[in-house]
Amino acid sequence: MSKLIKAIIRVISYVNVGFILLLTAVTLVDVIARYLFNTSFLDAMTVSSYLLAMINSLALPGITLKGGHVQVELLFDRLPPGLRRFFAAGNNLLAGALFLCMSWYAFGKAAESWHRGFFQGWMQLPEYPAKFVFAFGCLMTALTFLLLFLQGLVGKEERMAE
Questions:
Q1: pTM of the model
Q2: Which position among 23, 81, 92, 143 has the lowest Cβ density within 10 Å, counted as fewest Cβ atoms?
């Protein structure tokens, strides 16, 4: 299971690079259009906000697996190793449950957006693709936290090397 989740996270990272390139292209076209033609790329803000939501949610599982979250460990580092493992496991379980709830809620909102046909902006862009990607990112983050929780229980917590 660990190897499967790590492989999925690697694929997600490559997809995320594509979204970043697309966001860069949208911004570039918008800036050039404003400078040369004195007009903007229609709905550039909407497209950019969708892309940013997708990029952020898809980056979370990889960041979680690498242990790249910002954390303050003033008290944590002074605890005995057993207590540190206990609190780390509890944190991973709680975070996994939280992201699972977020994913469940986001999938519900995405399905509602798809069925009701919610659109935004002048170009009438559908909301549901970004919402489904956000929900998937939250689900993968939840699975990553739960994987770290299970690894912490058996005492072999490992991070993705890169």
A1: 0.81
A2: 81
